[in-house]
Structure of Pilus assembly protein CpaE:
Amino acid sequence: MTALETNLAGSKFMTPVSAVPAARPDFIGFVRDAETAHILRAALGPAFPAGLALHQLDFRQSIEWLGGIATPRTILIDISGEDQPLTAMVQLEAVVDPGTRVLVIGENRSVSFYRSLTRNLGVKEYLPKPLDAAMVQREFLPWATGAEPEAEPARGGAVVALCGAGGGVGVTTIAANLAWLIGGETRRHTILLDADLHRGSAALFANVPPSTGLRHALEAPDRIDPLLIERAAHPATERLHVLAAEEPLTEQWTHRIGGGRALAAALRQRYNFVLADIPAHPLGFAGEILALAQQRVLIIEASAQSVRLAQSWMALPAGAMQTSRPVLILNKYQKRRGLTAAQIEAELGVAVAVTVPDMGPNAARAADLGESLIATKGKFRDAILQLARIIGAAPGGAA
């Protein structure tokens, strides 16, 4: 902790809300640029029927404004452009009342800065620019409306199940490259979980050895804890781990019912995103993970058979934590070959969210070498980035 953070350890941002005077506005926000204002209005505006109090001002102008009004219960402040953002927080503290809920947006993307604000200075939440509307709704909306985000386990990491309408449609390719992007570039703690316990394909794609601990964990779910996860998962990058088994097909064993739930709960405590590569026949452990996912991503090809299989996947009942329909991904797409996106959408009754181009032999070569296809700019990288944004794992902006 820096000297400045030590001085602010008793920040009045941390004062209980019960100490806050009652007669004052509920929310006011200040942002520097029109693009950020537009995203905030889209994400927060519907919750404020009488109008969202949002002003486009720089930090200095925001401080002057706040000094002349009764402090709202919740403030959103933009510290972009400030050379000394922690010092700026001292200046903000001087013009707000104790117990004010403070939400901050800025340009610094480091974890240490986030922790300084939220753990040491009492800021309720911080998001770096460029903002993403889904992330704003998830992280800012509860505070802005006077509530609080749900307690754990609901505030754990997101479980995203990636499923394929038939074998060979490229589920592991999509899952692995999505994991590379989220863990390696957006710097969110991510684990790639291969729910097929016999193939270990995710480990091959990420160039890490298969785990010997996953089977043992599922055989004794009561022993699953963060320490076991640390031992069983293999790091691919600093913030991307892989959990994939390669159990012999000749061995017969059955995971204990509830093992998938226990594993998912432990993973959500440790990671921001759990990307589960679901096999074509989601039975046993894979079925448990599929039922627990908040989001399902269904990957198809532009063929009649793939669309027919997709109908079966779409007919599966939604999991208890799933609040939206599956995200439909059209993979290995080539113009003038197979069905069009419009034909697929008409047949399935759901829009194609992302179209991924056919990478041909490059995909197989990258898998053999354990390399990612997103390292170079192009249509494939753009598609994976678009998917990351849809699941709330990447902010908006150019690729």
Q: What stands out?
A: Confidence is low (pLDDT under 50) at residues 1-9, 16-22. The longest strand covers residues 158-164.
